[in-house]
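ok posting inputs for the NAP job
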Amino acid sequence: MATQRWEVGILGATGMVGQQLVRRLEGHPWFRLAWVAASERSEGRTYGEIPWLLGGSVPEFARDLRVERPIAGRAPQLLFSALDAEAATRYEHAFAAAGHIVVSNARTHRLEGDVPLLIPEVNPDHLALLAAQRAGRPWRGAIVTNPNCSTVFLALVLAACRRFAPSRVLVTTFQAASGAGHPGVPSWDLLGNVVPFIDGEEEKIETETKKILGTCGDGGVAPAPMAISAQAARVPVLEGHTEAISMGFDAPPSEADLVSALRGFSNLPAGIVLPSAPKAPIIHLPERDRPQPRLDANRADGMAVCVGRVRACPVLDFKLVALGHNTIRGAAGAAILNAELLAVRGWLSEGAPSWS
Ligand SMILES: NC(=O)c1ccc[n+]([C@@H]2O[C@H](COP(=O)([O-])OP(=O)(O)OC[C@H]3O[C@@H](n4cnc5c(N)ncnc54)[C@H](OP(=O)(O)O)[C@@H]3O)[C@@H](O)[C@H]2O)c1
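and the output
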């Protein structure tokens, strides 16, 4: 357990993911939010003056923080980035160069060879890339990323099945409106409709999953040798991405063994306790019509992936339905969990301003 506590900041604090970060940092045992930044559209306003997009109201502790411009060097060492990809391209390297540890939700740096694309229960060993990052880049800081909001649920399911050697995967996603940020997809395009295209999403699911499940060595990460085919659709759901997944295995299990592997999965390194980690990262629902976004996306405080409808597949070996909360386990909660792993692994202690 970490004994120190750290001040943190948020880049892109005013968007969907930024607000979810603020909400989840309220009362966090290790991190205290001290700094928020966004674009010039929001600069100078207090956080309480920003339109609150989530349920309830702006958390009281954040109300008086003033939204700043993202200027590197003036913020806490640990920063969560919820910038859109274009702004992340402009700012994240600059902040790492100035000594900040940037824990990012953006796609911008996820596939760079020396940048960990991290899920603590799946590939905590990929944090070793940070040594190469520090050695090869002109900076004292670091960049760590969390996966795309559909990738993370698929990667957790496949990680639970590792011992059966998954080698062929078909996944079709049904993605919530909140996944497109705010204001996102126009209501005219989405209500009463299904949009069978999300720019770049299928490629992200296919490539990021293989990096996450890949083997970390001296030369970086060797992608997992599996074939993944993804199709992504936007559906008129507010929160929660659903995925229909079919898997072919090189060592196919029985259905009972597959369910037991999913239920029993909890792969945090021995002795590591992280405040945001769910007791079980995968929740198996035996009912024949679950999981459903409205009923199940918030289970385990939004940090678990729910799976159901596990059954034989006449084309590959097995199929199932998975569901996760896209702005929590798919973004803000995932980033906070990653920062917690950085804390226990000692990446935040050096020169970090702390409070007690
Ligand atoms: N939504 C999801 O489910 C989800 C899941 C996983 C990952 N992500 C990723 O997380 C990031 C944030 O997503 P989101 O849905 O929260 O997007 P969003 O609602 O559009 O928010 C974007 C944020 O970036 C800020 N920003 C934009 N341009 C800027 C600039 N030039 N300088 C400084 N700040 C700037 C915005 O500030 P203003 O309010 O001042 O414009 C806002 O705070 C994206 O990279 C996205 O791909 C999102």
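notes: DSSP finds nine helices and 14 strands in the chain. The longest helix spans residues 328-344.
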